[in-house]
Design brief:
By secondary structure, the chain is α+β, with helices and mostly antiparallel strands. Helix content is 15%, strand content 33%.
Length: 659
């Protein structure tokens, strides 16, 4: 302990990582497009109401925003969006969030021109997953059409070709869902992905190709083989071959297909290259002009970036980053979004020959010494296998870190267990001020990759099938208890009496279920737009997820008894743990009625709780003021429940604690 170090109770440590810093000039970096010598990317900006801006970097390094307010390049297809824009030869095509119409901005212009007509139903016709046809005269898109009744069963998904004059031609119709429509370089072959209820795309998506004669071939994927197979990210090579990722070897590996042939396995890293297709437009590999392929894949809680040479060898780059996404080829370079344990995401250019890097879009200047940042430790811990063969789970664990303060001798820190959404998402070893907000105050944080998470292969992902609300609870509880025991890592030993759990969306469900069905483990919890009633989610959610729970819980409505058994809202008699609830009032994925039913039950029981409802927010908070209110409100809630003081200099107004 240095002379400058003070001793203060865990949780109360003063820190410069405030909620104001978390949102100040923050941006969520999205898709990357390389257009000739220019690079484009998307930025979601909380300070601008969460709107998505398109940023253009010309060859001379000049960077400009293309879309002024109120334009917002964001689509609502599948409600999660992605693939809302694309660029070719300087012309930009995008979906605007307000009306979901397609717009175009011609090269040399900055004025959006409406392409598709105004729909009869507001936002009733939506477009996503845009790709420009090789001749540049049109875009291919996934079109989602909503009926006036609003029922998820009536939503129609199609692949369409949209001409510059707005004329739309349906290319693919019939499957419940479609994605990734891509034309071959000569424009004569069409590839796309399709899947049917109750599958999700990571369960059994088929890769279909239509040839010049109109015949169709299922290249890979689906349920016709010995086991289900998921295909993602089909990409045409310049030579007319089709590359894609499939999980027939348990992990998502890289394959190549030639018309008339069979898929060839090109790269199997032993771990997942791809992730779940919650969003359109995700890219984990890029084809270079010289026949090489650059790809990203995870191992031991961190990503590697590597190149497959033309002789088939795989060469890893030695880079300081630990997460890579949105890969786009740029000659003999690759451009991507990259981040690491001490670096927020940047837009990065990597020379494939020499590994030289150039930051095209730097992270914001936080003005902080890296000593403030807690570095994650990837751990594997024993859990309860149950009906699954998998007997272990994983987490990124962050120790409390503050260069100016330490905890009292002999005292262990509180633990905050993070439960990611999906539940197929994964913990990422990237500097996240939303995590450092807690670690710099004296919390240990465990970001748990419970069974069902992506990055460990299909066997691990499928270990949650039929067991959501069981296996995930076993894993988060096992992680917390392991870190509180003497068997966990010595660098992070936590106080068993001050364990807290938080999660959003599907992670919010696991949070609520852990407090309800594993009473006595956690002293407090926070649900951000979490699921309280599984039956309500199955009966009243959007089209994309309307049959998702068939695989995670049981077929609906035949399995109604299982849904009731695993829904926290039906077991509030067992819920006696203080709980904070945060919800958006325009959430269509998890409607606010679920949060309000839960809060009413807590109020009736007299359980200490807090509830914040944010106007204008949907599934996930995008506005800076609401992100701040949720963070500071949750901290204030834990301070009152776990018994520590708020740092006085931040001026945090204590959240109301009701009972």
């Amino acid at each position: 302990m240095t002379e400058a170090t003070r001793t203060l109770p865990y949780g109360s440590w003063p820190t410069p990582i405030t909620s104001e810093l978390v949102v100040r000039a923050a941006a969520r970096l999205g898709e990357v497009v390389v257009d000739g010598t220019d690079v484009w990317w998307a930025e979601g900006r909380p300070s601008e109401g969460g709107r998505t801006v398109l940023v253009h970097r010309s060859a001379d390094g000049t960077t400009t925003d293309l879309l002024p307010p109120p334009w917002n390049a964001r689509t609502r297809v599948h409600e999660y969006g992605g693939g809302a824009w694309t660029v070719a030869d300087g012309a930009v095509w995008f979906t605007d969030f307000a009306d979901q119409r397609l717009y175009r901005i011609d090269a040399g212009s900055s004025e959006p021109v409406a392409v598709t007509p105004e729909p009869e139903l507001p936002a009733g016709v939506r477009h996503a997953d845009l790709s420009v046809a090789p001749d540049g005269t049109a875009v291919l898109a996934v079109r989602e059409t909503h009926a006036a009744g609003g029922a998820s069963a009536d939503v129609v998904h199609e692949v369409v070709r949209v001409e510059r004059n707005g004329t739309s031609t349906v290319l693919v119709a019939g499957p419940d869902f479609v994605s990734d429509p891509r034309l071959s370089p000569d424009g004569t072959w069409l590839a796309w992905l399709q899947w049917q209820h109750p599958d999700m795309p990571w369960d059994a998506a088929e890769l279909v190709v239509r040839g010049p004669d109109g015949s169709e071939t299922v290249v890979a994927g689906g349920r016709s083989g010995a086991q289900p197979e998921s295909v993602v990210q089909p990409t045409w090579g310049a030579d007319g071959t089709l590359w894609f990722l499939a999980d027939r070897t348990d992990v998502w590996s890289l394959y190549r297909w030639r018309p008339g042939g069979e898929p060839e396995l090109m790269v199997d890293t032993g771990s997942d290259i791809a992730g779940p297709a919650w969003l359109f437009g995700l890219r984990r590999f890029a084809l270079l002009d010289d026949g090489r392929v650059v790809l990203a894949y995870g191992r031991d809680g961190a990503d590697r970036l590597a190149v497959r040479e033309t002789d088939g060898t795989l060469r890893e780059f030695d880079l300081e980053y630990a997460a890579f996404g949105q890969l786009a080829a740029a000659g003999r370079d690759v451009v991507c979004v990259a981040g690491g344990p001490a670096a927020e995401p940047v837009v990065l250019r990597v020379g494939v020959d020499d590994g030289a890097t150039q930051v095209l879009r730097p992270a914001r200047d936080l003005g902080l010494d890296p000593a403030w940042f807690s570095r994650p430790l990837h751990v594997t811990f024993p859990t309860v296998p149950g009906d699954s063969e998998v007997g272990e789970a994983h987490a990124l664990v962050y120790p409390p870190t503050n260069p100016e303060v330490s905890g009292p001798d002999g005292e262990r820190p509180p633990l905050l267990v993070l439960v990611h959404g999906g539940p197929t998402s994964a913990a990422r070893a990237v500097l996240d001020l939303g995590v450092q907000y807690w670690t710099s105050r004296g919390f240990a944080v465990a970001d748990v990759d419970y069974r069902g998470s992506t990055g460990y292969g299909r066997r691990y992902r499928d270990a949650l099938r039929d067991r959501w609300g069981i296996a995930d609870l076993d894993d988060v509880v096992s992680c917390a208890r392991w870190l509180a025991s003497d068997d966990g890592p010595a660098a992070v030993r936590v106080d068993p009496a001050r364990l807290a759990i938080r999660g959003g969306s599907a992670g919010g469900y696991t949070t609520l279920a852990a407090l309800t069905f594993r009473p006595g483990v956690f002293a407090a919890g926070a649900s951000h737009y979490g699921v309280a009633d599984l039956a309500a989610l199955a009966a009243d959610t959007h089209s994309f997820e309307s049959r998702y729970l068939d695989g995670l819980v049981a077929p609906w409505p035949e399995g109604a008894a299982v849904y009731a058994e695993r829904s926290p809202i039906h077991h509030t008699d067992a819920l006696n743990t203080p709980l904070a609830v945060f919800q958006g009032d325009e959430d269509r994925v998890v409607p606010p009625e679920q949060a309000e039913m839960l809060v009413a039950a807590l109020r009736e029981k007299g359980v200490p709780h807090s509830y914040l409802l944010f106007a204008g927010e949907q599934h996930g908070f995008r506005k800076a003021e609401n992100i701040r209110a949720a963070l500071d409100g949750e901290l204030s809630f834990y301070a009152q429940v776990l018994g520590f003081d708020l740092p006085p200099d931040e001026g945090i107004v204590p959240i109301t604690l009701s009972s």
